[in-house]
Amino acid sequence: MPTKLPPWVNYGLLPLMNLGMAFLVAGLIVVILGESPKAAVDLLVYGAFGYGEAVGYTLFYTTNFIFTGLAVALAFQCGLFNIGGEGQAYIGGLGVGLVGIYLGHWPPPIGIMIGIMAAALFGGIWGFIPGWLQARRGSHTVITTIMLNFIAASIMTYLLVNPLRRAGQQIPESVTFDQRMWLPQLHELFGGLGLVIGRSPLNASLLIALVCCLLYWLFVWKTRAGYAMRVVGKSEPAAVYGGISPAKQIMIAMTLSGALAGMMSLNEVLGAQHRLTLGFTGGYGFVGIAVALMGRGHPVGIILAALLFGALYQGGSELAFDMPRINRDMVVVIQGLVILFAGALEHMFRPWLEARFARPAVPAVA
Amino acid sequence: MEDLWTQVLLLTASTFRLATPLMLAAMAGLFAERSGIVDIGLEGKMLGAAFAAAAAAAMTGSAWVGLVTAMGVSFALAMLHGFACITHKGDHVVSGVAINITVAGLGPVLADAWFRQAGRVPITGESMRFRSIELPFAQVLADVPILGPIYANVISGHNILVYMAALSVPLTAWVVYKTRFGLRLRAVGENPSAVDTAGISVTAMRFRALMITGLLCGIAGAYLSIAQGAGFTRDMSAGKGFLALAALIFGKWRPVPVLFACLLFAFADAIQARLQGVELPLIGEVPTQAIQALPYLLTILLLAGFVGRAVAPKAIGQPYVKER
Amino acid sequence: MSVSVTAGALPPAVALEGIDKSFGPVHANKHIDLAVQPGTIHGIIGENGAGKSTLMNILYGFYQADSGRILVDGRERVIQSPEDAIAAGIGMVHQHFMLVEPFTVLENILLGAEGGWTLQAGAAKAREALLRLERDYSLEVDIDARIADLPVGIQQRVEILKALFRGAHVLILDEPTGVLTPQEADHLFRILESLKEQGRTVIVITHKLREIMAVTDNVSVMRGGEMVAHRPTAETTTEELAELMVGRKVLLRVEKAPARPQAPVLEVEHLEVVDEVGVRRVKDVSFEVRAGEIVGIAGVAGNGQSELLEALSGIRKATSGRVLLHGQPILDAADARAKKLGHVPEDRLRMGLVRGFQAYENAILGYHLLPAYTEHGFLKKRGIIGHCLDWMKNYDVRPVAPLLQGTSFSGGNQQKLVLAREMEHDPDLLLVGQPTRGVDIGAIEFIHKRLIAMRDAGKAILLVSVELDEILSLADRIIVMFDGTITGELSGAEADARRIGMLMAGIREEAAA
Known about the structure:
The structure holds 3 protein chains of 3 kinds. Helix content of chain A is 72%, strand content 0%. Chain A is an all-alpha fold. Chain B is mainly alpha-helical. Chains in contact: A-B, A-C, B-C. At the A-B interface, helix 6, helix 12 and helix 14 of A face helix 3, helix 4, helix 11 and helix 13 of B.
């Protein structure tokens, strides 16, 4: 929307105020629960960054959120709301899982490369479906992606309970992949370089995520393909007028979005658990919405927001451990509050700020 | 034969019980969406209400206090949605997602802090729940052929919230099509400018619609935790709010077709439990997951225009801004 | 300022005193005074953007004035919402009708005046009252028809009925003839006359001088947010009003040399366009545009011109028929540009510019695939900004700021930016839709001169405009459309407003003769 606010208010102060509100309300809840918010924050920060292992875990979660945040943000660029990150990540996990189960014995870089492609491909297909439905049949992605999340969950439950379950096991999960399929752990990688970082599931997925951030930035703002996608996101009639097919862009955007979400599974399946498990997506797909909103669609913002949520997830476990009145779900509450204040209520302070910082309108020279 | 008849009766009765929260939430969604507000927060309102009902009932020992509290909490969440979408012109979907996620976290947090039961709220006392009501003469008439068992087993023997849900559908239909409020409700979802220039406040109309949404979702939530179930557990709404949303779309935003969509989805749910491990002729064993996914698949097919066409209220999801 | 013209004892039906209204930096109404005598038809005339609609929306309570008073029948009224206006006996027919399309006529009329909290009782009473109103004012409408199924002329009657049903004594009509054929407009004027005869007061907002002269008793002229004159219609002339509206003598004809048409550039053969809902919008249309001429398409808005333009530019698929550019068919919008077709769209805010894009990004919309702007799939930002700067200077786009958001420019400057983009890519055929809609006078002259210069450079131009004066002053040949068909073609020299008006109403010359 056209704004009269100077950039530092629009991109700096306003988002910070929104975020501040979210944490203020969260703090209030902590007070109501009878704990000290300051002590909670201290514990949280220590839990997230206080020691090497904690940092590793924080960055491990961050990796998930970068992927899902990018997925939501890319769809936003095309004017689409992809709430289906959860399902796309789940199906992406199926892709990488199948490769892990059946091609795990292939020589290391090849198996892993195929696994990465399979994650993107499967997630991409699960994103393409709502994209195609919107482009060709006019069904709104918000509803179809919600529905596809449930369908994905049903498919995965069926597969893990029946054909993919490890023989002779009651738990619905697949066999453990061949070691050659495991993504290298970062503490090992860095150890090889002489750097000592704490042991954690943090793995090469983080590097893949950062590469994706760079590619996202280049694609969206520097290429003509990204230009075409942004035109569709801002105005479909203008796209049609400019010879850009909205249907095609919508399908591309949803496919790429799904692929990004699908790659989240690399971190969990190929990087940490080394097998396919029930519900490994853990709601991270939804966190992507908060990350994309907070990061305002920019990769730097997305990385920072993902880091914040990574810290919350890791620090939150620590918090729950030390403060008996607060449990892990407090993180989910904060996540919801961030979406509320940075997303749905993003304009709440705008009139107030405009009254203080409004720039004189651009002189409309006749 | 006798056995099959009993099975049909039991299946029908359980369909009604499973349809109850769907019907209430779908009618709730109908009011919101007909007024032009997208409500994917039905799930969150239901879950919040389920927690509130269980917590209040557990503390006071009264199911009725639980119900009223549930309705109050759901009402407050609906007003929050209105504050974001109507007052501040925020994105309806984002607001709905925010409410769903916040509530999904807050329930277990508060449950843990107040009840120390690993995110659950247990309900123990009998007075804390709505129990089945036996309608008059159910026992006496049970022996009447055909109608007797239907009356005794299918119509009688539910708790009061089931009957409330049943009542909510004709009531919604009447309000929407026969009253002044309904006329304005339908108009504000189609063309808010027309409503504004007719001297009616668009804001007030949409808030009123959301109030009803909140209250109905409250009943649906209370049903989950203090009528159908006993106590609150994490994520106990388990997608029922989204299923209600699917039913709302499947029924094309019209009360009676929405009712049938709810019954269809509930029937799928009821039958899947019975089909587990059963070999059907020709098809073989149907995986329960396939039946669970069916309502969502059907809704997608409908939205895609493969089975009929669903046209949403025209102004849905758009904040109302006076043109300049 | 003295506003009273009659010495009658009755106070004005409506009086506005010192009305002032700003929207942010835009001062839409500057201390406006207005008195409307009861039982008259009062015209308010002014150019687009003169502040007429704002003023009337204040009277109707849709907006609130920053300062000033409103008097109805001599008594001061506080009007803060349409509800207050309705209670004060004021009704308004908006330019864009305020009707709920899936509703019936009756439901639309009941909305806000239901007469009880259930619909049943009110509906029965309303039926009676409506039948009486329909009889009294010759407002024939099928009460049970769905609005979506009714033609616009009838929808307008529904709006008038709606206002009368609410007991309006003062009826405001905002640009009531914009979407009507001359015949429908005549019918409307008869309705307005009968309203006057029954003692009601009518206020008509328009920018069309002919209407003012035809139907009003008094006229007030607005310009740039100010009320500049009040006249009894009988004592003024079209010329005087035009001058008051614009503030200086207008050149009704643009200076131009006779056209020297050459080979045809665009050939349209038996073109048919059916829209999304299955309505035939363009019916068997054939014509050609030659290099070095401007062909104007005249017609009341909504008679297929928009769809024709979209079909020619490749935005919309034609149902049948052929569109040839240099003898080659046009496949889609991208293909049309590749074949040297430029297109200044009718709705520049929706189509011509992308909201939220900077000016330089807007400057390549549609041309983003050209090698001049991209390399290996990447945009050449620096180069694009350079081009954009040049065009902004050449086309007098102010401010010269390629990084400014496109929508931050004024209407005239936005239009010049779009014009620059389309002309600077050197098209052989330029399609221009409503080039001066919402554009200030200075920019209009600039745009007209540019179009003539382009014609003189041997390019083909197809101009679609609902402003008859614009067509008359620019076009070398004029094609008139009515209900999707071409009803006639005139050369620029032989054309006059009367003959075009007949054709716009669908009356073909041979039939009339």
